[in-house]
Write a structure and sequence with these properties.
With about 240 residues, the protein is of the alpha/beta class. It has two domains: about 1-35 and about 80-120 and about 165-243, Rossmann fold (3-Layer(aba) Sandwich); about 35-80 and about 120-160, SIR2/SIRT2 'Small Domain' (2-Layer Sandwich), CATH 3.30.1600. It has helices at about 5-15, 45, 50, 55-60, 60-75, 85-95, 105-110, 165-180, 200-205, 230-240; strands at about 20-25, 95-100, 115-120, 120-130, 135, 155-160, 180-185, 210, 225. A six-stranded parallel sheet has the order 3-2-1-7-8-9, sandwiched between helices. α1 (about 5-15) packs across α10, α6 (about 85-95) packs parallel to α10 (about 230-240) and α8 runs parallel beside α9. The longest helix is centred in the N-terminal third of the chain and has 15 residues, at about 60-75.
């Protein structure tokens, strides 16, 4: 149950923070109509990630992988941010904060948040596998798209299975969670590494930890407060108390 006392305590911690970090996962976008990956109705219950979201599959059969991502791009392009996305954007206006996200849907930017690190990339960007040229995708282009500079295949600029994170982004994320005094973890199962190690770093740094997720995670026992609700319910309440 969400009591006024709990909400005031959590909001006061955020209001008094000098280094606030959000970490979001697929669950925050579920209410925008974007399926998660590991829920009972998640994408990986229907599709095989080894075939459709791995680097080796992309190199072996780029057209197949592109068909999967192109369908997702077209679907995600029709979605809008929900109350949780907008609440994080509003909090950023009120408090100095950073957002680390596993999501590739771009909805945080669409909601107006500025200080974002997209740890797993962005589905609307592409990168050449040869010359590494980056650009924004034309979703109406033929697939697989080709690089204008060298003619090689363009890859969705997202982290596929078998790939490592962008090290500049990862180093920044490590630095942020190592020094934050409050961390809010929203809509992530914390099952995918290495991002799932970030809350533990904040925990060891004695940060105040708030988890918002309809389901328990392995990190739930370590959180100072853990809400069994979606971000679209809890975050707007926090915004109201901060104003």
């Amino acid at each position: 149950m969400i009591t006024d006392e709990i909400m005031k305590t959590v909001s006061k911690k955020i209001d008094n923070s000098t280094s606030l970090v959000f970490l979001t996962g697929a669950g925050i976008s579920k209410e925008s109509g974007i399926p998660t990956f590991r829920d009972h109705d998640g994408l990986w219950k229907t599709y095989d990630p080894a075939k459709l979201a791995s680097y080796s599959s992309f190199i072996t059969n780029p057209k197949l992988v592109w068909e999967f991502f192109h369908d997702r791009q077209k679907s995600i392009s029709t979605k809008e941010p929900n109350k949780a996305h907008f609440a994080i954007s509003e909090i950023e206006l009120l408090k100095k904060s950073w957002l680390l996200t596993q999501n590739i849907d771009g909805l945080h930017s669409k909601a107006g948040t500025k200080n974002i690190i997209e740890l797993h990339g962005n589905i609307f960007n592409v990168k050449c596998i040869n010359c590494l040229r980056k650009e924004v995708l034309d979703i109406n282009a033929e697939i697989p798209p080709l690089c204008r500079d060298c003619g090689s295949i363009l890859k969705p600029d997202v982290i596929l299975f078998e790939e490592t994170l962008d090290m500049d982004n990862w180093d920044t994320a490590i630095n942020l969670v190592s020094s934050c005094d409050v961390m809010v973890i929203i809509g992530t199962s914390l099952e995918v590494g290495p991002v799932n190690t970030l809350p533990n770093i904040a925990y060891k740094n004695n940060s105040f930890l708030i988890e918002i997720n309809p389901q328990d995670t392995w990190f739930t026992p370590y959180a100072d407060f853990s809400f069994r609700y979606s971000g679209s319910i809890i975050l707007p309440k926090i915004v109201e108390l901060l104003k």
